[in-house]
Amino acid sequence: MRENNEDRPAAPAAESASEPDAGTVALDKDAAPGEVLLKVTGLQKHFPIRKGVLQRQVGSVKAVDGIDFDVRSGETLGVVGESGCGKSTMGRLITRLLEPTAGTVEFEGRDITHLGVRGMRPMRRDVQMIFQDPYSSLNPRHTVGAIVSAPFKLQGVTPEGGVKKEVQRLLEVVGLNPEHYNRYPHEFSGGQRQRIGIARALALKPKLVVADEPVSALDVSIQAQVVNLLDDLQQEMGLTYVIIAHDLSVIRHVSDRIAVMYLGKIVELADRKSLYESPMHPYTNALLSAVPVPDPRRRAAKSERILLRGDVPSPIAPPSGCRFHTRCWKATEICKTAEPPLIPLATGHQVACHHPENAEDQAPQDTVLLTAAVEAAEAAGVEVPETAVPDASKAEATEA
Ligand SMILES: Nc1ncnc2c1ncn2[C@@H]1O[C@H](COP(=O)(O)OP(=O)(O)OP(=O)(O)O)[C@@H](O)[C@H]1O
Ligand code: SF4
Ligand SMILES: [Mg+2]
After folding, report:
1. Are 44 and 66 in contact (CB under 8 A)?
2. Ligand 1 neighbour 85 (Cβ under 6 A)
3. Residues in contact with ligand 2 (CB, 6 Å cut-off)
4. Which residues form a coiled coil (predicted)?
5. pTM, to two decimals
6. CA 137 – CA 395 distance, rounded (Å)
7. How far, in Å, is the centroid of ligand 1 from the Cα of 198?
8. Domain locations in the chain as residue ranges
9. Cβ atoms within 10 A of the Cβ of 158, count?
10. N or C: lower Cβ tally within 10 Å for the chain?
11. Residue 222 burial (10 A CB sphere; 0-12, 13-18, 19+)
12. What pLDDT was estimated at residue 395?
């Protein structure tokens, strides 16, 4: 972890001499390892849906719908969830590429939620993003040199020794040949292109890097190389990462903590060991049971696969109560009517569930499953006690 800003490329005189405007943040202090670097509170992004000649708003896509989490300096926070659950939107909100509908984003203790372009300029150096698709995120008409040097130009920064020398150094750092400075993206493989994207993200020595599915577009054989590169760079440069993935296998070895998202919400947040060894949210359990087990001796033990029924519901009209109740094999009436808050149920382990696994039931009085839950339980191969079956309990009540 860096202790100060001295190793950064010098800002141009005009920029550093100018008086900060009302919204400008002065980044004069690095967070010490383990301190909160980024704090997100009640963050929401609702994309309006407009129709008709007058473009009236008729609804909204609740892509991110009230999330809270911290990212500590030097750590890797993994974020997982199925396609469309709001991961990329969350990444773009915390890097301030998107304006939030509600909530706050604090970076090093300063509120950056609504900073304008000028106010965001110093912050842009500290927070960088690696994009999901290495094929579309690099301009095909620009050389690698132009792509990796763009952040210096945008920030008006001249590194020591000049831009070209620094770009060639960066290419070497990410495992590319510095002689390829004048080549174009199409001359590189997918893995190499992602390395170019990584070099560009690291150019200004950022503190926080948000990597949106950095390896999902790559061959499995290349994925490990890029993940290992990110890991090595973190050790060397003291980087803090938020790594987004759609399954738990990619981030397994690199994350210190993991947030599991479902339909715009965080449903579980825990350190890696707790999450993999004793997941508490049924959805996490389902995601984990879909993770392939590489060791053939352990594969048999992992044969109980929990199959998720149906598709993810629409974020335009998410289900009431717990959003997972339409697919959960443990859902009862309270799951349909009351939204479970994300609360700590063990040290460093937060869960949003009325009937968590490996923990005390939060709604012990509510034991009768929803009809859809019984069907989901059957599909998932989960045993349902007689008393939890809806009709059986009704019959019991009538008898009483
Ligand atoms: N600019 C936009 N306008 C309207 N809706 C959007 C916009 N961007 C994203 N969405 C919607 O918001 C929801 C969340 O999208 P997002 O891209 O954040 O999901 P994701 O978890 O990253 O998915 P994937 O794994 O497929 O990348 C989706 O329903 C998507 O269609
Ligand atoms: S048990 Fe209820 S609250 Fe918990 S995940 Fe299932 S539906 Fe949601
Ligand atoms: Mg995405």
Report:
1. yes
2. yes
3. 281-282, 322, 324-325, 328, 330-331, 335, 340, 353-355
4. none
5. 0.87
6. 60
7. 23
8. 13-255, 265-399
9. 15
10. C
11. middle
12. 44
Token pair 């560009």: residue: 200
DSSP 3-state of 328? coil
CB atoms closer than 10 angstroms to residue 182: 10
Residue 3: pLDDT band by 50, 70, 90 thresholds? very low
* Cα(101) to centroid(ligand 1), Å: 15
**Strand arrangement, sheet containing 127-130:** 127-130, 208-212, 240-245, 76-80, 257-262, 265-271, 349-351, 343-346
93: which DSSP letter?
H
CATH class in words for 13-255: alpha beta
| 89 close to ligand 1 (CB < 6 Angstrom) | yes
Distances (CA, A) of 396 to 330, 363, 367: 20, 21, 13
Name residues whose C-beta falls within 8 Å of residue 31's C-beta, 6 or more positions apart in sequence.
37, 72, 73, 108, 207
Any idea which residue has 């960066």 for tokens? 170
Determine how β-strand 102-107 pairs with β-strand 36-51.
Answer: antiparallel
Exposure string of 22-51, with b = 16+ CB inside 10 Å and e = fewer, is: eebbebeebbeeeeebbbbbebbbbbeeee
Tens-place pLDDT, residues 16-69: 333 333 333 333 346 667 799 999 999 999 999 999 999 999 999 999 999 999
At 387, list the tokens: 């008393």
**Distance of CA 309 from the midpoint of ligand 2 (Å):** 14
